[in-house]
Each structure stands twice: as C-alpha cells, then as structure tokens.
Amino acid sequence: MTVQHIWKKTHLQPHRVKTFKYSNYSDLVLKTIDIIGLYLNPPDDTLVLSLDEKSQIQALDHTQPLLTLRPGQLERYTHDYVRHGTTCLFTALEIANGKVITEYHPRHRHQEFLKFLKVFYKQTLSEKDLHLLIDNYGSHKHQKVKNWLKRHPRFHFYFTPTGSSWLNQIEIWFGILTARRIYQGTFKSVKELIDAIEQYIRSNNKNPKPFVWTKTANKILTKLHRV
C-alpha cells in the first residue's frame, strides 16, 4: 500500500508501457517528404499504389469446435490449434479510391514479386505512370526486378525508410483485414483461408473507402524529433 500511495502521489503508472521505434535511416527526411507528397499532392494523370506482401498467413483450425456467444456466456475457443499450411498475400492498394489488386503465392521471393508486378501492369491503364510505395525487402531490389523495371518505365518505386512501415498505407489495410477476417478464423485448408480473404476483398472493392492522409511531412518530422 505504501508503494501504491507513492505511485499515486507522484503520478507514476509503471503498468502502462508504450513502444516506439525511431528510424536512423540516413535519408529519412527526404524519403518522408517524397512519400507524404504522393499522398497529399500526387502527380497528375498517374496512379499511386501502396504495395506489400502479407507473408506466411496461416490456415489455423482449432482442435475443438467454437463455442459461440450467448446471453451470459462469452465466445470460447481452444487455446491450441492445427496448422493446415500457409499462403502469402501480394497486395497493391490504390491510394485514390481504396481498391486493391491481389494475388496469392506459397512463397514471397523475387520470382513471385515479378509475377505480381506483371499482373497489375496488365490491370492498370497503359497511359498512366505507376508510383509504388514499397518497403526495402530484398526481393523488391533483386537484380532481375531492376532489369524488368528498366524495360517498363511506367513504374516508379519509392522505398520507405527502414523501420518506418507506418508510412505505407497498405500496412493499415493489412491490419484491418487481419482483425476482420483472419484473426480467430477457423480454416481447415489453405483454400478455405484464401476463399475467406477473397470474400472480404470482393466486398472491399464493391464499396472501397480510401484512407485520408491529413498530416504534412513537416508535422510528422517535427513530432519525430520530439521523441
């Protein structure tokens, strides 16, 4: 009680913890300005897309049937589960309208990444340049990817600074997908998992809602320097 009294008197709350990560990337400021500029003032007659892979999504099945919610009783499920395989979800989010283009692969190497680039290359208007926000994962910078990009000048890559995935809007979309469709889901096969994700994506693309970025680069960088 003495310790609790001291904490209360001095306004200390040791049970509350926040995490943070400040990027030490050398070009953090310039990269942040470029990316926020694409959000707030995209070039005319172009498409801005946020791209990434959600890797190793597991098709998990609980060892016993789910006990559903009812009056006076919480929803209950077993703490253990059976793994039925994984898939990697390749996704490109169109910043202007919130629609997504997706593809599934068992792995996420440069080979699969190139296949995905070719998919939405064909699904976007040929007269528009494509500005892609993407992280620094090795497959995105593979020499074969660089060679392909040289032959397709419509593509312009903007790599997010190391440790700054929060700048990429696709990470927000992945978080919503996980919460609404994957988390606590029961899938007896990878096909069931993919079908469930596809159901959500079809619903998303029928009534897409783009994220609205409001903070300027100057406001963000000023706040970062206060950390």
Q: How does this structure look, described?
A:
The chain has one domain (25-225): Ribonuclease H-like superfamily/Ribonuclease H (Nucleotidyltransferase, domain 5, 2-Layer Sandwich), CATH 3.30.420. It has 7 helices and 5 strands. The chain has helices at 2-9, 28-40, 110-123, 143-150, 169-182, 190-206, 217-225, and strands at residues 46-62, 81-94, 100-105, 129-134, 155-159. A 5-stranded mixed beta sheet has the order 3-2-1-4-5, sandwiched between helices.
Shape: globular
Instruction: Tell me the helix content.
Output: 25-40%
Main sheet overview: 5 strands, mixed
Q: Span from first to last CA? A: 33 Å
Overall structural domain count? 1
Low-confidence stretches: none
Rounded to an integer, what's the Rg over CA atoms? 21 Å
Class inferred from helices and paired strands: alpha/beta
CATH topology-level fold name: Nucleotidyltransferase, domain 5
**Beta-strand fraction estimate:** 15-25%
The CATH class label is Alpha Beta
DSSP helical segment count:
7
> Architecture in CATH?
2-Layer Sandwich
Find the CATH superfamily.
Ribonuclease H-like superfamily/Ribonuclease H
Mean pLDDT: 89
What is the β-strand count?
Answer: 5
What series of H and E elements makes up the topology? Answer: HHEEEHEHEHHH
Condensed summary:
With 227 residues, the protein is an alpha/beta fold.
Question: Could you name the key traits of this structure?
Answer:
single chain; five-stranded mixed beta sheet; 37% helix; alpha/beta; globular; 227 residues; Nucleotidyltransferase, domain 5
